[in-house]
């Protein structure tokens, strides 16, 4: 909603990327996308569970496919990246097609980072990695991340049919992972009007689609709207700097090995409740996107819970004794955040998330 009482002051940069969105596009559009980029020998990468779909894409590419490498793993261990780079070189690849979730796309990015080869992404979850120039590599248990335009996929092929096989629990947690990108984009230091529009629409599409998908996982239209929401939320992630919520998930995943999308799902209502007093415009936009919700953090918590998502960090395997260490790490080197990040404040937030208490906004 336009608020003409607020002066405009922003910068906005677009990354060159082509988006193709339609059912069946993984097979019908990926070869054209490779041809548009002038690619004749692409390496297709995926995880072991996504091999069937990736093989169909490889078959559709025909002679433009130089090989299939099905070794993607969560958080891109550096030895996995090394082997993939070697496979790309051995195949004489001139590009890479990543088919799968954030892990497969992360492996494609690792190849692009080291070789400069152009990347095409064919996402099968809502992680949003396909819309960002952010790469990640894990070595000796520690995850390093960075931004490099070379890893931004040049072409993204969204095919809702690929997401039909996403089990409902993963659909819900991956969907909330996407919502987290939009939520933090709305109060990011580099927020801008276009990104805010994408964030609000992304939240609207995803929160409306998730209950429909959970009720009827084979509903291709609902799957399409969820994937559309994921695209917008991913674009927000690529365009802005994330805050406390992403920092917490980074610490909980990196140091304590908690699962990515599930951790986002549990933490988001609490991180938003913490930031709410300092981000009133973001809360107004989120309330609009959720049909006029009065208590946005509670509405997100209720939505995820009603769809069977995990509710507590304890359920995800965190130990009570880890809370203080996690709080210290998150408060020690905080990401930019609308509300001051204090060790006590973060400990209270994490304790509530650990117990799975109803989130409450305190000023
Ligand atoms: P993932 O790619 O590991 O997938 C989770 C599980 O779901 C895997 O077992 C996978 O095989 C399976 N799966 C994927 N698509 C499926 C489908 N359509 N049907 C059935 N099963 C399917 O998890 P994710 O949540 O998509 O991505 C998480 C990773 O991505 C993390 O390493 C995270 O750090 C990274 N990530 C990076 C960025 C970025 O901008 N660089 C953004 C978001 C996430």
UniProtKB/TrEMBL annotation:
This is Maleylacetate reductase. Its EC number is 1.3.1.32. Keywords: NAD, Oxidoreductase. Belongs to the iron-containing alcohol dehydrogenase family. SUPFAM superfamilies: Dehydroquinate synthase-like. InterPro entries: ADH_Fe/GldA, ADH_Fe_C, Alcohol_dehydrogenase_Fe, MAR. It holds the Pfam family Fe-ADH. One of its GO terms (molecular function) is maleylacetate reductase activity. Residues 171-354 form the Fe-containing alcohol dehydrogenase-like C-terminal domain. It comes from the Bacteria. It is an enzyme of class 1 (oxidoreductase). Residues 16-160 form the Alcohol dehydrogenase iron-type/glycerol dehydrogenase GldA domain. The keyword Oxidoreductase applies.
């Amino acid at each position: 909603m336009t608020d003409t009482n607020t002066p405009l002051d922003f910068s906005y940069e677009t990354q060159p990327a082509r988006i193709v969105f339609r059912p069946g596009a993984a097979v019908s559009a990926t070869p054209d996308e490779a041809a548009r980029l002038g690619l004749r020998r692409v390496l297709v990468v995926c995880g072991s569970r996504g091999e069937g779909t990736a093989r169909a894409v490889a078959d559709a590419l025909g002679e433009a496919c130089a090989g299939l490498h099905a070794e993607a793993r969560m958080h891109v261990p550096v030895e996995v990246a090394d082997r993939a780079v070697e496979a790309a070189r051995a195949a004489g690849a001139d590009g890479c097609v990543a088919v799968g979730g954030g892990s497969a796309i992360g492996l494609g990015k690792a190849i692009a980072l080291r070789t400069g080869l152009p990347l095409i992404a064919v996402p099968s979850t809502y992680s949003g990695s396909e819309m960002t120039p952010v790469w990640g590599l894990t070595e000796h248990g520690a995850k390093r991340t960075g931004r490099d335009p070379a890893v931004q996929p040049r072409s993204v092929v969204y095919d809702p049919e690929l997401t039909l096989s996403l089990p409902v629990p993963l659909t819900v947690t991956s969907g909330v992972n996407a919502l987290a990108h939009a939520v933090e984009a709305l109060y990011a230091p580099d927020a801008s009007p276009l990104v805010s529009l994408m964030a609000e629409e992304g939240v609207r599409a995803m929160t409306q689609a998730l209950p429909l998908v959970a009720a009827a996982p084979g509903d291709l239209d609902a799957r399409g709207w969820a994937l559309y929401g994921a695209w917008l939320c991913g674009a927000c992630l690529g365009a802005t700097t994330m805050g406390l919520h992403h920092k917490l998930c980074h610490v909980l995943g990196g140091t304590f090995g908690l699962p990515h999308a599930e951790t986002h799902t549990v933490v988001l209502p609490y991180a938003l409740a913490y930031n709410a007093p300092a981000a009133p415009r973001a809360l107004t936009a989120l309330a609009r996107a959720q049909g006029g919700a009065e208590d946005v953090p509670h509405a997100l918590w209720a939505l995820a819970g009603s769809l069977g998502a995990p509710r507590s960090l304890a359920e995800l395997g965190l130990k009570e004794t880890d809370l203080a260490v996690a709080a210290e790490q998150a408060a020690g080197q905080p990401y930019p955040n609308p509300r001051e990040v204090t060790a006590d404040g973060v400990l209270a937030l994490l304790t509530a998330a650990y117990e799975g208490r109803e989130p409450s906004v305190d000023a």
